[in-house]
Fold Serine hydrolase domain-containing protein.
Amino acid sequence: MKYSKRIWLLLLMAFIPLLASAQKLEKQIDSLLGGVFKDKNGPGAAFLVAKNGKPIYRKAFGRANVELDVDLKPDHVFQLGSMTKQFTAVAILQLAEQGKLKLNIPISNYIPDYPGGNKITIHHLLTHTSGIKDFTKMKSLNSIAQKDLSPKEMVDFFKNEPVDFAPGEQFDYNNSGYVVLGYIIELVSGETYENYIQKHIFDKAGMSHSRYASDVAVINKRAYGYRKKGEVYFNKPNISFSIPFSSGALMSTVDDMLLWQNALNQNLLLKASTANLAFTTYKLNNGEEFTYGYGWHLKAINGVPTREHGGSVFGFKTMGVYIPSKDIYVIGLSNCECNSPTQVTKDIATLVLANGL
């Protein structure tokens, strides 16, 4: 009995500093987020911090629906914007792993009539080095913003625009490239992009609250999107989600995004060797290295390598940071264009590192 009590005492003594550290970190994160999301009656954000695949912080701030005074909760569903690109990249790698496509052959093998497609590879599309025109920079975008287009029609919208540079010459973040990738996923798999992602990623990872975006479907626990002019909030404008498509049309929760990160870590979706292609830095034609893999920015916090990506779509802004060496994941989802979580998500990751976790 005495021995047993001694063991319990030692365990308690070891646990108390950990508890104190966790409480300190929680207060620090609360303070950070409280300084950004000050308006409790306006739209806000949900945040989750995980260590070794388990949540250590999970809170939401502000309103999910301003008109109805519905508070945001961590399980609300947000539009992801360009974080969608991670899923598109992994889908492409799954098809490559199955031998259904190759990353370094011309896209003309899949889209024969694509102008200059004999010089552009899937690798170029994944790494934003293709040089094709980004449709979000085209003045004519407003003419189609609310039209429901097929993937082919969406690709046809920008494919004849003059290229900005020769493939592989520069890195220039490009939404069009990821739309082309989504079209190729459909051509190669024989499934719609929406169905492919649902079946081969969301279902496999257990992401039961994630889906392709819709403004008309009844979505349980949907967070509504807003923008702000001066001191006044407005509902986000409507767009057809066939426009952002595979570059920015998915929805998820902070909990599901942790399941996504864990699925990647556990090789549930890809072999480790294949997944590593997404987390490798590549070089331009002149040998210059750039800090983007396939669907992730590859950066660092205080010298510690990170995998990062944000997103922005009407009414929403998002940001995720993963620190592989420490298995730390920080995800922030905001339902207002006025509340970018980009910097505060990085700040939280920095805090977690500083606390020795």
Remarks:
- The longest helix spans residues 2-36.
- The chain is about 35% helix and 20% strand.
- The chain has one domain: 42-314+322-354.
